[in-house]
Amino acid sequence: xxxxxxxxLEQIEAAAALLAPVIRRxxxxxxxxxxxxxxxxxxxxCENLQRTGSFKPRGAYNRIANLPVADRxxxxxxxxxxxxxxxxxxxxxxxxxxxxxxxxxxASLPKLVATRAYGAxxxxxxxxIDESLVAAQDFAQRTxxxxxxxxxxxxxxxxxxxxxxxxxxxxxxxxxxxxxxGGGGLLAGIAVALHALAPNVRVIGxxxxxxxxxxxxxxxxxxxxxxxxxxxADGIAxxxxxxxxxxxxxxxxxxxxxxxxxxxSKALLLCLERAKLIVEPAGAAGVxxxxxxxxxxxxxxxxxxxxxxxxxxxxxxxxxxxGLAAAGRYMALRVTIDDRPGALSxxxxxxxxxxxxxxxxxxxxxxxxxxxxxxxxxxxxxxxGATHRDEVLYALRDTGFRVRTEPDL
Length: 409
Description:
Elements: H1 9-19, E1 28-30, H2 32-38, E2 42-46, H3 56-65, H4 69-73, E3 76-79, H5 83-94, E4 99-103, H6 109-117, E5 121-124, H7 129-143, E6 146-147, H8 154-160, H9 162-170, E7 176-180, H10 185-197, E8 202-208, H11 214-220, H12 243-252, E9 255-259, H13 261-274, H14 285-291, E10 302-306, H15 313-326, E11 330-338, H16 343-353, E12 357-364, E13 374-382, H17 386-399, E14 402-406
Parallel strand pairs: 2-10, 3-4, 3-6, 4-5, 7-8, 7-10, 8-9
Antiparallel strand pairs: 1-2, 11-13, 11-14, 12-13
């Protein structure tokens, strides 16, 4: 039976006092391009610049620091593939407590190295977080170590809520706060704090469309597990909302919207290019929501929480490519030309006159769709955006080339 555990302002203010000496007061910076898009002032709350690269140490430190002395001696344990792992490892190290973290075998190398560097003993177990969590729970039962949940505990929610206190200090007239949402700890904490101190502020959660457990859960009136997930935003890919956050979110959050993978990659690219900030896909979910038509008539100023910046460089490269393609700045083409001298040169000349740049070319003379005197040329073309992309396609087709566009690079 689901039961609500409440978090109040007194707990949040106590967490703020506890965290003040150790947590960074992250900056809130304006974004002209997002302000123009939203029709009101938009600012970014940069938790990607927090210690360990995400908001997670706030809740982890508050939870661990409140453990009784007897529990501290036995250490703490967590299961995570990234941000929570680093947050627990850092917090435990700061407090002089032993930490053990179970991570999936496929966890990214930078996150694995960072977690160990923060002082945790790391074990690679299972292919998924759920399998790592089983191992962590078994470890807790065997050793007496305290399991530090990433979002389903009142102390964790209170710690995450300190983000809202900083927002109110930095943007006292804030009208809307947009929050990336997985298990709900950050969203619930921010909602509780704002409801107590600025009840007119609109709070909006954002989930990846391919890992969206909250919409169905809110309809059902209780946490409901999503059957499967597939998203680049692994930081908010949580299959079951937390029982502790649920009641607060259901009562206090204005709405929860979802964003697709294209929007996430475009948002990450915008943060990198325009704000000069490295943000992971999950951390950019709020920006993605502003770039889509999901949100309208937002009371301003709007503060978007960038919840994390821990992204594997290899994934960053792929996501940037995906974002460029989604924004119409990279285009994959397959063009059928005559198999004769000068045909390829003529194709490239049309592209050049249209002002596009060819990134790579692959020439193929085989394929059941080709006549014996035809060749298929696969190209990746760099353009200046969606309008220019359409102009390049028009130029090719107007010249008589048969062109097919590819959905992905």
